[in-house]
Each structure stands twice: as structure tokens, then as C-alpha cells.
Amino acid sequence: MPLPPKNCGLTCLIAGVIFLWLNHAAAAEKEYQALSLEDCLTIARKENPVLSASREKIQELVADYQAARSQFFPRLSLLSYYTRQPADRFVSGGLPPPNLFTKELSGAITGKQVLFSGLKNYQNTQAARKGTEAQKQEVQRTADEVAYTVTEAFYRLLEAKENLKVAEEALNQRREFAKLTEAFFQAGKVTHLDSFRAQSQVSEAEQAVAEARNAVILA
């Protein structure tokens, strides 16, 4: 049975609103992504400025080591020369110009090899190599410290969130108990002191929740 135009339009409007709401909820859920411990460690290793500076320092030391090693290899130099002269250029003495050359090309390769430098090159190479190894160890030590700090903070946050959950559950229980005690007091089954004690427990539970929330923020 077809729907009347008015009802059909209302149905389409409701369906459209529901469709948009579902898309918005799906997009929000897609944007939110809880990070695992491994994700946190990966981000910390990538974004930590100390580690980035240490890696750049390693590259500099490796370049110094390569430069020190290059002193052991021969140095080659290539020289070339090319010139052009006009064929009818003036010749001293006033004689008719003979068949003169018009192009001149020359080249030379020279080599230089250091045979002995008083162990200077060897010592420079060893110093550069040891400096590179020491910097690599420093990077590893820093990476271990970053991993330890991130892991400790990760589990501290999990613990703080769990404590907050427990505190909120305890607060809900204290509030329900306070309502029940107040009802009993109104019915004359308990004393005013019992009702006051139940309200005091609610206040203590609220304070515990506030402290737990602060712990989550500080974690």
C-alpha cells in the first residue's frame, strides 16, 4: 500500500536524519583510535628530539670516519687544456705564415699517495671509528630510556583509569545507599545519624573520584 505524500516525505526526512547520524557516528569512531603500547613506543622513538639529534650526530661521525679513511687512498687529479688559434694570425719577422696549427689540446693525470704520516692518519681513523661506535651506544641507551619512560607512563595511565573506574562505581553505590538510608529515615526505621553517615560516605566517595580524575590527568 503506497504511503500518502505527507507521510512519505516525513519518512524520508527521518531516514535521512538517521543516515546522517550513522555516518557521523561512524566517522567519529573512525577518527578515534586507542593507541597500544607498541604504537606509543613507535611514536616516541620517531618524535623524540634527543633521539633525532643523536641519529644526526651519528651521520656526522660516519662522515668524519669516511673522510679519515680517505687519507689512505691515492688522490688523483685530472688536468686538461684546449685552445683555438686563427690560421692567419701574425707571425713575427714578416714572413708569410706557414701552415700553423689552429687547435691545441693537452691533458694530464697526476696521482698522490701518502706512504707514511707518522701514524697520524691511522690514529685519526681509529678515533673517528670509536667516536661513531660510542655515539651508537649512546643512541641505544637513550632509546632504552625512552622506551622505559613510555612503558611506565602507559601502565601508570592504565592503572589511573582503572582506579577512576573503581572510584566511580563506589560513588554510585554510596549514592544508592544514601538514598535508601534517607528513605528509611523518613519512614522512621533508622536514625538521623545513620542518614548523616551515609551522606558523609557519599562525600568521601566524591573526593576519591576527584582525586582519581586528577591522577588520570597527571599520568
UniProtKB/TrEMBL annotation:
Subcellular location, principal: membrane
Domain of life: Bacteria
Keyword annotations from UniProtKB, A to Z: Cell outer membrane, Membrane, Signal, Transmembrane, Transmembrane beta strand, Transport
Cell location: Cell outer membrane
GO molecular function: efflux transmembrane transporter activity; porin activity
GO CC terms of this entry: cell outer membrane; efflux pump complex
Pfam families named in the record: OEP
Signal sequence annotation: 1-27
Family to which this protein belongs: Belongs to the outer membrane factor (OMF) (TC 1.B.17) family.
Protein name: TolC family protein
Organism of this sequence: Desulfobacca acetoxidans
Lineage: Bacteria, Pseudomonadati, Thermodesulfobacteriota, Desulfobaccia, Desulfobaccales
